[in-house]
Amino acid sequence: MKFIPLLLVFGLALSLCNLSKKLHGGGSSNTNSGTSSSSNSSGAAAEHGEATSIQLAALSGGSEIKWEQQGMSFSVPPKWVETTNESKTFSWRSPGGFDAANLIVSISPMGEDFPTEVSINAAYDQAKTRAKNGEVDELKWVEIDGLKGVQFRESNPEKPDGIRRLQWMSYRKFAGQVQLINLMLASSGKGFPNHQDAMYGILYSTKITH
User: Fold this and answer.
1) Domains: count for the chain
2) How far apart are CA 128 and CA 118, in angstroms?
3) Residue 45: which pLDDT band, with cuts at 50, 70 and 90?
């Protein structure tokens, strides 16, 4: 159904809106197997995002896809198709109906003096609050292709047709801009377990020019 990406984009917009308000107001194999770490802007340890053998197997026979306009690439399983390729939004989708998986990447340009460290820490704090409220069941700092960011996974929704997201957010300097990268993989609550290995594999396959 074509309205799923629209729901996801709407959810992404709400997430960014909430983060903006906070900044202006206050100033299976779902575990990563990487062992190396580094220090992020908040001083906490950031795991190296590396797919497990099972997650890599979920991508077997697939292909590398490129978002040329933003200097990014990903590996996806076979039969995934492109649904959006614009200057600031890029999305692909697995076969299937409502329970299909979606990759949605959004770029938000910021001002040169935008407080990226404050913002990424606020994103972590927001996800931490959601975790305390039972809305998020995985939260950590993860480094992907040299960029440190916040990774979180939403808890299983109450209704099986509710949307569940795996999300990673980070900042980079690209094409003379400070940019927020918002990378989201999502499916319905019912479909999420079937796509979970592939979604983690896609996330950790990400290559980013910065």
Assistant:
1) 1
2) 15
3) confident
Provide the whole-model pTM: 0.82
- CATH of residue 46's domain is 3.40.1000.10
CA distances from 174 to 44, 46, 112, 120, 204 (A): 25, 22, 11, 17, 20
Sheet holding 207-208, edge to edge: 63-67, 72-76, 207-208
Instruction: Give the residue among 54, 49, 182, 198 at the shortest CA–CA distance from 110.
Output: 182
Q: Which residues contact 68 (CB under 8 A, 6 or more apart)?
A: none
**194-204 pLDDT, tens digit each:** 999 999 999 99
Average pLDDT over residues 109-124: 97
Q: Tell me: the pLDDT tens digits for 140-156?
A: 999 999 999 999 999 99
User: Which residues form the domain of 204?
Assistant: 3-208
Helix axes 3-26, 116-132, angle to 10 degrees: 110
| Residue corresponding to tokens 């918002």 | 182
